[in-house]
Design brief:
Helix content is 38%, strand content 26%. The chain has four helices and six strands, in the order E-E-E-H-E-E-H-E-H-H. The protein has a four-stranded mixed beta sheet with strand order 1-2-4-6, with helices on one face. The N and C termini lie far apart (42 Å).
Length: 111
């Protein structure tokens, strides 16, 4: 079964991938989700930016972090920007602890 849905803004060439339901990104599902994200971006190869909406992701373990690194490396090699959005506090702490926050989360510009 698919874990993700997509929204594509053709004018901006932005693909947003959303989790269908509340989940963890963990050893139990990281590989399936990683493969599903990569499949969806390959099918939208004209996208120049990919946002992975994390609002439905409650927690992440080391395998989940590894999946994000693999997704990011693969997508960025194709010249596509990759960012996480709507990251909760728990995952934010994990990304800061692993020194990956700036790599995955684009801060909004200062007003």
């Amino acid at each position: 079964t698919e874990h993700l849905t997509t929204e594509f803004d053709q004018g901006k060439k932005v693909l947003t991938i959303n989790f269908k339901e509340s989940t963890d990104l963990s050893i139990d599902n990281y590989y399936k989700i990683e493969q599903e994200v990569l499949y969806k971006i390959v099918n939208r190869s004209i996208a120049t930016v990919l946002y992975l909406d994390m609002s439905q992701v409650n927690n992440i373990d080391s395998r989940g972090v590894g999946a994000l690194i693999n997704i990011s490396a693969t997508i960025r090699k194709k010249g596509i920007a990759f960012w996480l959005t709507n990251v909760n506090t728990n995952i934010t702490h994990i990304l800061h602890a692993t020194k990956l926050y700036r790599y995955f989360v684009k801060e909004p510009p200062e007003a």
